[in-house]
Fold each of these.
Amino acid sequence: MTVWPVPETREDEALVCAARGGDRSAFGLLYQRHARMVHGILLCRVPPQEADDLVQEVFLLALSHLHSLRDVSRFGT
């Protein structure tokens, strides 16, 4: 069976590549796309009052390690 990447994944790949090149607005778009999901995951693991700050920390960490992501299509996961 062939699985084709969904358009959103391809868009994420382009955004990751742009963000790696220093495009902060591209990383901002990645944040907009994925912050809600990260927030939901965190709500299952930490007290609700801590989730917002941890979302920020997750994305700051992601930004600082973006260059080491081997498969840019895996950013969302």
Amino acid sequence: MNPKLFTLVLIAFLGISTSSFVQAGKWDQTHPRRAEVNTRLNNQDRRIHQERKEGEISRGQAARLHRQDHRIHREERHMAAHDNGHITHRDQARLNRQENRVSHRIGH
């Protein structure tokens, strides 16, 4: 086989396989269950900032609450990685329980 033709075929093959790999690894960040969990986390983040600004919670309390929310978000991404970019109903329920615990600590 002609070396130039072989090189072109190899480049074309690598280009196709690379783009397929990228598409397969793409997460569905707009999946409804993921969107709901992440929207709640964003709302809690806003509430923490507001409570801190109003002096309702200390800097340390705010930092702790942010760390807890960050852990929940990291867990959500981990769960989604195992289900092709989605989270299951069971995962969502677990994350919601964790978010509820953090939510009750905000402003109390």
Amino acid sequence: MLGGMRELTVAKGKKITTFKLETKDRPDDDTLAAAMIGPTGNLRAPTIRKGKKLLVGFNEDAYTEFFG
């Protein structure tokens, strides 16, 4: 799912975390998966791809920035 993505933004309630995926400091796949998976063990919803950016989870501020 993250193949070709430059940026991953994960929203968990009021907390927003953005990962830059094309850097030396890129977190490992387990860290990214843990951020994307919700309490039920499924991918957080909603999940939206826009170009090379991926937004997982819902937060109004994150949506404003993502689509702005």
Amino acid sequence: MNNAVDSKLFLKDNPTLADFQEYAATLVKERGFDHETVAERFMLLMEECGELAKAARKSQNIKSDANSKTYHVDEEAADVFIYLLHICNQLGIDLEQAFRAKEEINKQRIWQ
């Protein structure tokens, strides 16, 4: 596994969603997470979603355990995004294409 100095990770300015997916694919290999199963990654995604929810609660001053770890909403949102990218890559999903296709379906729905 490479250390930060040897990192091959690079994300250009104004990246596309495909750039993020490519970055995540490199990140997984570089950090030694390329042997995780989809189930393992899904559980990690759910864990990060919980941390995002807790951070959001704290940011909105919703009552919570005063002794619990302090979370940063932006960092937790980024962690959720990273795990989503990992799962999409592992399942061969082009997230941009999937987003566009799903939005075409959603545009036909009547929202009340």
